């Protein structure tokens, strides 16, 4: 590793604690936003940050209720994250920045880019949440997530059964336990499960839970994407079971200055499955935007 995660800065952003990591000393700024549930900055970006740092000033945060960004009160939904990101960029003194997000982080970034395109130079959205009017098992998922106490019980369950976390990680990585740095990735996810239980947090982030309605998604950016003026790269792994090709293709077709790249041999967490491929893609895209 690069030592990026050996030091950190703890900030106060929008009234709550945020842990920040930095890499690279020169070049245009890039902000990395990780995914939901058991993700942290140290996890999904651990290899990507090393590849971006030579040409960029890289900023990585643990999203609220992840990693070192605890505790947080209230509902951390889509409206919260729009205000949160605005304040984060002010605190970091970044008038403009490129943003790379994965899953939850990509959904958050899309919502922000639609409202504040003046603050983004470029957007890379990997398997984002927030695309599509309806999901599989829509009503059942909504019912489970809105059952009082269910999400907190899920956190305690995962904390007490690290074997379940391990099996889930193996099932969701294309190389399974053979994934690069698998033991470290698993240790970080296990620590995150324990922290969620300790702080009484739900297993699923509020943004994800509140995006669901009983019969249709309450967060669906597809109709708004023709208004997205930020140069955008849509990225999906060809084995992603969560975000389909149809949704991603529709997003790319709707967004004026964008394209879609599908990475072979990658599932939902592209930066674990194919980190080198993704890093090359990201660097090339960001360089082209600056030309």
TrEMBL record:
What Gene3D superfamilies does UniProt report for this protein, alphabetically? alpha/beta hydrolase
Entry's Gene Ontology molecular function annotations: catalytic activity
The portions of this protein that span the membrane are: none
The record's Gene Ontology cellular component field reads: membrane
Q: Per the database record, which ranges form the AB hydrolase-1 domain?
A: 28-273
Which InterPro entries does the record associate with it? AB_hydrolase_1, AB_hydrolase_fold, AB_hydrolase_sf, Epox_hydrolase-like
Q: What is this protein's name?
A: Pimeloyl-ACP methyl ester carboxylesterase
């Amino acid at each position: 590793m690069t030592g990026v995660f050996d030091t950190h800065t703890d900030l106060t952003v929008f009234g709550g604690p945020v842990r920040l990591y930095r890499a690279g000393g020169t070049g245009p700024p890039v902000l990395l936003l990780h995914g939901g549930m058991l993700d942290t900055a140290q996890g999904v970006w651990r290899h990507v940050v090393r590849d971006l740092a030579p040409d960029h000033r890289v900023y990585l945060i643990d999203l609220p209720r992840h990693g070192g960004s605890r505790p947080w009160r209230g509902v951390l939904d889509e409206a919260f994250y729009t205000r949160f990101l605005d304040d984060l960029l002010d605190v970091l003194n970044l008038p403009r920045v490129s943003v790379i997000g994965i899953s939850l982080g990509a959904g958050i970034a899309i919502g922000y880019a639609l409202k504040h395109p003046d603050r983004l130079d470029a957007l890379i959205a990997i398997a984002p949440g927030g695309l599509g009017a309806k999901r599989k098992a829509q009503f059942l998922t909504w019912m489970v997530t809105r059952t009082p106490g269910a999400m907190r019980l899920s956190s305690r369950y995962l904390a007490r059964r690290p074997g379940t976390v391990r099996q889930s990680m193996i099932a969701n990585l294309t190389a399974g336990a053979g994934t690069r740095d698998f033991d470290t990735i698993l240790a970080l996810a296990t620590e995150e499960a324990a922290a969620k239980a300790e702080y009484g947090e739900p297993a699923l982030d509020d943004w994800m839970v509140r995006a669901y309605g009983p019969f249709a998604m309450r967060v669906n950016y597809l109709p708004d994407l023709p208004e997205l003026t930020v140069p955008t790269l849509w990225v999906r792994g060809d084995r992603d079971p969560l975000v389909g090709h149809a949704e991603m293709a529709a997003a790319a077709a709707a967004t004026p200055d964008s394209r879609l790249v599908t990475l072979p041999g990658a599932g939902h967490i592209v930066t674990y499955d194919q980190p080198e491929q993704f890093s090359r893609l990201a660097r090339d895209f960001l360089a082209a935007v600056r030309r």
